[in-house]
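Q: What does the assembly look like in three dimensions?
Context provided by user:
Components: two
Sequences:
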Amino acid sequence: MIRIDRARLEETFREQARIGATTGGGLTRLALSDEDRIIRDRMVAWLEAAGCAVRVDRMGNIFGRRPASPGGPTDDELPPVVMGSHVDSVPTGGRFDGVLGVVCALEAIRALNAAKTRTRHPIELAIFTNEEGARFQPAMLGSAVMAGKVSLEDAYNKRDRHGIRLVDELERIGYLGAEPCIPRPMRAYLELHIEQGPFLEEAGLPVGVVEGIVAIAWARVTFHGEQDHAGPTPMPARHDALVAAADVVKAVRRIPLEIGRDMVGTVGWLDVHPNIVNAIPGKAVLTSDLRAPSDTDLDRAVERLEAAARDAAAAEGVRPEYEPLMRVPLTRFDTDVVGAVEAAATTLGVRYRRMLSGAGHDAQHMAAICPTGMVFVPSIRGKSHCEEENTHFDDIEHGANVLLHAALTLAGPA
Amino acid sequence: MIRIDRARLEETFREQARIGATTGGGLTRLALSDEDRIIRDRMVAWLEAAGCAVRVDRMGNIFGRRPASPGGPTDDELPPVVMGSHVDSVPTGGRFDGVLGVVCALEAIRALNAAKTRTRHPIELAIFTNEEGARFQPAMLGSAVMAGKVSLEDAYNKRDRHGIRLVDELERIGYLGAEPCIPRPMRAYLELHIEQGPFLEEAGLPVGVVEGIVAIAWARVTFHGEQDHAGPTPMPARHDALVAAADVVKAVRRIPLEIGRDMVGTVGWLDVHPNIVNAIPGKAVLTSDLRAPSDTDLDRAVERLEAAARDAAAAEGVRPEYEPLMRVPLTRFDTDVVGAVEAAATTLGVRYRRMLSGAGHDAQHMAAICPTGMVFVPSIRGKSHCEEENTHFDDIEHGANVLLHAALTLAGPA
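A: Here is the predicted structure of the complete assembly.
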């Protein structure tokens, strides 16, 4: 039975991890940065060396196609089985998030080449632009445009915190491609990713068969208080935007515990104005990230967040402003694709569990335009979006083999 | 009886308020910025036009001396009566904080000139560098160096948030003077300032006779948590630095109310790392500003703050770091100088109350090296460190006349 080459996979992984490496053993490889350009160039070179025809679309998404019959025409008739993920990272993030799925997909293609295996459908590797959303909001922008969730023009005009436009950075790093960024026929989309949570490790399982992605709601809450001198302003006369914000931070911690059933809630971003020691904050801006395994639970959580923001504002005498930033309903993956992943694990004798993803992935948008599934591998201590992010290579090897065999099954024998 | 010229005072005030004016009717005139250079140049020109000999010391503090006998030698034998304040502002601050005391002192000198009044002691106007502490910490740096509280070398090496050194900015704007910045004999130091609190307005009084300055404690609290992905990390597994910080924000609000007796507490500064929507904050840094009218109350408050930081850290499983930044004991002004201010108000028929200042002022450091007192004028709605900062000119006129007469009494008849 065909298998990936673990030594080759590890070497490729180590090489990518040097690009944007941090001193703490992680990565800072923000979307469309110089580091992103270098990893993209490297991936394109590796794909071409593996006999793939590489195309770049107008969002900078990269596609490398392995023809159905090696040596044959690249413009195949049957829709491809696409494997992919992203190569950008959050600031001081880990070496695995995103790029591991790309490296494993590349290794799957190399393994097919080494075994001279032909497939009925062509096989593609996809690398999506700006998945993390750390530089340009929202996250998963490359796949969102492809799925028609965000217009190309809107995406082009997104600016980072220095005011630099996405389209200008795409052009600067040489990845403003010519291909239309629109849905096209695909046999399936498969994405291998680290779990980023603790469940697989706790269960001692090397692989998760992902059935879907939790519902996610992002919001921005701004409190407008009264900037004043921290000394002579008596406590009862204060309208402190940060005190109201602190109430919301605590509410976002409390609400998921009240609702239960694997909900989570995070305030990741909080800006204070004017942010000096001796001024009562006149303005505070925070974001809330709520996630739930059911749309109903998420609706209840969002209602409670809005109420908490109103209550906090009323208690402090400040003006609240509530802006929904993103709402993604529960994503259910395709039964056949999930079945193919499960069958691959069974065939290979790899122990697994079915599970939901707690994080958004490009697979979420792809699920809207083609049959989609995902393979998870464990995260040590569940840690992700940090330098300590780690996964045992024994688990990665199992995951990559499951990915390879699921893709093979979906692509069919030549 | 000699009086200040209100029209001239108002005109000078309006002219200074144009330098660094914000669209919202306030000022942004950070220490040692270009705007600070412009207001300094203007003040020096006004002082020289008023017959004062101007000197600049190594901290950029400006002194303009009106000789004891007009036309006589400038190097007088008797120590001067010094009136002063500062001309820098916080970002988007008001038009009054600091500069009003300088403008009123200038007008007092002009009034003495117009009346050809001679004094036994010379009269000086002082403008202190970097009072606000908005750009370089700590606040009141110019007077702190003069009083020997901070060494000149330490002050020179203070950096703003862009890493620019104070000494380089002093040199750049042309105010790195040659005079030593050390204590010298002074008959008295008098500072007129806006109250920045609501008490005078609430009592309907135009003037406050300031007996001292509340005790102040600044601290920085840092929480080191675990940066992690906001999606797949279950709530019980989190070590969120911002959740602990929110507890401290609420504690700093609660502690002064528990202790009572006019205490105040403020978290003005809070920075979150990495500060993105979908990462659990790995680090949060905040400052606490606690003030009390007694050192004992302040000690109790600081103890409670430290305990609150420890408790918050323990509850969230993060590591706390507590750094005291500044501790200023209760400052009591000189009985004779306070008496001279009170006597001036009585002589002029101006209604007043004795009070403590809730804000730090250069007078706090001057009190350590010479007999010191202050005159307060009301702040409309108690607002300060914001663009809405305002004071009625009827009140300012009363305050300026009290300043003039207190200075005259202390300087003595020629």
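Follow-up: The CA atoms of residues 225 and 241 of chain B lie 5 Å apart.
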